[in-house]
Specification:
12 helices, Transferase(Phosphotransferase), domain 1
Amino acid sequence: MDATRLAAACAKIDEYAAVGAPMSGAKIAAICAIIEDGATARKHRRKKRRRRLCVDSTRSYKQIGEVGIGNFGAVILARHRKTGQAVAIKTFRGRDGKKSPDVGEVLREACFLAASAGHPNLVGLHTVARRPGTKEYFVVMEFVGPSLRHALNKHLRIHDAPFPEADVRRIMRHILTGAQAMHSLCIVHRDTKPVNILVKEDGRVVKICDYGLAISDYDERVDLWSIGCVMAELLSGKVLFKVENGVRQIDKIFDLLGAPAEETFETFMSPFMCGKVLRRRARLPPPRRDSRLRELLPSDVLSEDGYGVLKGLLTCNPKERLTAATALQLPWFIGTAGVP
């Protein structure tokens, strides 16, 4: 599914949702047909090949066990009863006080997964499935393996140290390559973190997953900030800007990276947030302007080339922040192009 088909599918979901009434089975099938047509075009299937059902049944899969759980749903490992293929089935919970999930959210995530299918660093869609006799819908995705959070914790437990720079570079190349592909489709993830990045058991393939907060046509550099936080966590073994003891996250950011000039706040904050931060700053001592990022990750942990990537990702002003494509052209990656 290309960016045009993706936009058309999302627009159709918004159109049906605007009515206010529950989406009918016919409308759901129509959206699933758009998703499948996009997948068909992408895979260049023969025109005479018989079309499979747009919406599958959960009875087609045998559940094996739960592999992840979050605020808005859970992911279940399952196996297709006929083919034996392992898949991941995402269930959804209701949001904003609703008892049941919004089927539009399910279909929107299915659209993003369908657009991502086939890329080596993005989790792709298999199908949309419905529980028979209900209006519960699920997305059936490719199964990859444990999360990067799990892999990092395992490494910390075994080696009593975070990943070495060479491993982080390999992982970051995969993440940035996936992000570049996402952004070329006008998909902005908005929730890139270790738990939403999957690692194959052999550790050689890394894939971005979970499009629950993803949207189209948004500033892609919000993802690059998150990816910079992931990189720092892989190198340090600790969440970079973890909120604790009542300290505000913005204060942690400014303390580590240095506070930018107040007149530039509006370039990377909403007017409301900008006014709120400036009023609070007026009551506090002058903030530090210099960055302490190098103190956190000294040269024996991260080379100068690697530090250039991290610093470029963790730039407060999004207009000055690296894009995924630009980051991948920096010496840290170019000098090791043949390294897996």
